[in-house]
UniProtKB/TrEMBL annotation:
Coiled coil: none annotated. This is Diguanylate phosphodiesterase. The chain holds residues 591 to 868 of 882 of the full protein.
Length: 278
């Protein structure tokens, strides 16, 4: 075991070199990992308030790495983005997601799916055409697809992102601003974006039970969203009290561990069946 300043360094505190190496390996192995089935998509349900009707699911990517084990998307997505490989990631997730929706449609279920976009997708002028092609191939109506994008992703290069967003929107795809409240959050700017939904960042929703400031932020986002005619979604709903408060404020949709954690496709099927059987 290594010692530092006389104190024992326990467990796996990685050095900068190890972090760099791991990141480098992840980036170089990513494409192969997609082909080898190490990467999968989990789905987290979104329910209406107050009805608790399942409106849709959010697709969240998972990587089971042979050496590192489960790698968190917060770690590998930024690395994949920086390496210019996010186009492959988004296509992979989109195809899985549309295939899932297609099979639900075949069973008579209308459940929408939300896919997270990266800033790099919004710099690819061919992206809307690729998406239109995928929708057609799977025979999924555009309104059953939502794209979640962060404000910072749009703000990085609005000149480039805006025409792409408009094109996606004109296809009939639902657009949501993710992590709302954390970025620039310019209200004037929100009005100019072709968006349908705002997702209140989970940090405010998690804090609203104990922090009056967070509660005020949540309340004002609900009001602002509604005054702009947007659907308001809260993520990070972990407690009954939070759900009840959100419902009382008029928030439209809830997502979080209280309803369900992100689930593998198989477990999601079981979850959906258990709900409709009740
Ligand atoms: P996000 O888009 O903000 O996704 C929500 C994150 O919150 C997910 O983490 C989800 O598991 C977690 N979460 C959901 N409900 C709760 C709750 O009640 N409490 C708490 N504490 N957390 C909750 P996850 O799956 O680790 O994803 C992290 C981030 O990675 C996502 O944040 C998103 O920015 C990115 N990401 C995930 N999948 C993709 C993808 O396919 N493409 C891209 N570009 N980014 C992705
Ligand atoms: Ca998201
Ligand atoms: Ca979010
Ligand atoms: Ca996030």
């Amino acid at each position: 075991r290594a010692t530092r300043g006389g104190e024992e360094v326990r467990g796996y505190a990685p050095s900068m070199g190890q972090i760099f190496l791991r990141r480098f390996q992840m980036v170089t192995q990513f494409r192969q990992a997609l082909e080898d089935g190490q990467v999968s998509v989990h789905y987290q349900p979104k329910v209406s308030l107050p009805g608790k009707h399942v409106l849709g699911v959010e697709a969240l990517v998972r990587w089971q790495h042979p050496e590192f084990g489960k790698v968190d998307p917060d770690e590998f997505v930024p690395a994949v983005e920086a390496a210019g490989l996010v186009g492959a990631l988004t296509s992979f997730v989109l195809e899985k997601a549309l295939d899932r929706v297609r099979r639900w449609l075949d069973e008579g279920l209308r459940i929408s799916v939300a896919v997270n976009l990266s800033v790099r997708n919004l710099a690819d002028a061919d992206f809307p055409a690729k998406v239109a092609d995928a929708l057609e191939r799977f025979g999924v109506p555009a309104e059953l697809l939502t794209f979640e994008l962060t404000e910072s992703g749009v703000m990085a290069d609005p000149q480039r992102a805006l025409p792409i967003l408009r094109e996606l929107h004109s296809l009939g795809i639902v657009l949501a601003v993710d992590d709302f409240g954390t970025g620039y959050s310019s209200l004037a700017y929100l009005r100019q974006l072709p968006v349908d939904q705002v997702k209140i960042d989970k940090s405010f929703v998690l804090g609203m039970g104990t922090d009056l400031g967070d509660l005020a932020v949540v309340r004002s986002i609900v009001e602002l969203g509604h005054s702009l005619g947007l659907t308001v979604v809260a993520e990070g709903v972990e407690e009954d009290v939070a759900r009840d408060q959100l419902e009382a404020m008029g928030c439209d949709v809830a997502q979080g561990y209280l309803i369900s954690r992100p689930l593998s496709e198989e477990r999601l099927e079981a979850w959906l069946q258990a709900r409709t059987a009740r």
